[in-house]
Amino acid sequence: AQKIYAALVKLMSQGVAADTQRSAIERSIINLRLNSSWNKPIAAFLTHFAHKVQDLCELRPATDTTSYGDTWCINSLDMCLSEHPAMNSHVQSLASSRSAIKTALLKTSTPISPLTYDEYLEQIRAHALILDQASANAFRRRQAANQAQQGGGARGGGRGGGRGDAATRGDQTGRGRGG
């Protein structure tokens, strides 16, 4: 069964259909942006991005081991985050830190291994989770403040059944509207 699946994957990663699908996914990654139109948590955006990259890499021909490597994925992720002020700031901070570490290690002739996409994604995800938690906490505080302004509960203080009064809806005695 595994051999059949491997052959199917190999077949699907070749040909015009695979090229077309690869191009479409690559375009969607290049055009993807974390901005005001994204209304879910930042971590969900990163998962969405990671799935798109995974789909793209799975369509890469078996003989191609260089396309969509770590550098391409990291640069694409940075572009996707460029319109989100807090995440873009974090991206810039990580880049500055990497540069400072690289410079310091070069002075000591210590070899530095390049950052992988998976390592980078985890660094970005850790910051996203912090921002998501802060956003959720701010939302809860706003919600609590709104409830406090409304009298501590549901609209109308919990009085009434929400169906109007007997004069406007009619009641069992027939003395309602028009009666």
Characterize the structure shown:
The protein is mainly alpha-helical. It has seven helices and no strands. The chain has helices at residues 2-12, 15-31, 42-58, 70-81, 85-107, 117-149, 166-169. Helix 2 runs antiparallel to helix 3 and helix 3 runs antiparallel to helix 6 (117-149). The protein is flat and about 65 Å long. The chain starts with a helix and ends in a 10-residue tail after the last helix. The mean pLDDT is 83.
**What is the strand content?**
under 5%
What is the helix fraction of residues, given as a range?
Answer: 55-70%
Number of helices: 7
**Classification by helices and strands:** mainly alpha
Global geometry: flat
- Overall pLDDT: 83
* N-to-C span: 77 Å
At a glance:
Helices cover 65% and strands 0% of the residues. The protein contains seven helices and no strands. The mean pLDDT is 83.
Task: Give structural attributes.
single chain, 179 residues, mainly alpha
Blueprint (SSEs and pairs):
Elements: H1 2-12, H2 15-31, H3 42-58, H4 70-81, H5 85-107, H6 117-149, H7 166-169
Helix pairs in contact: 2-3, 3-6, 4-6, 5-6
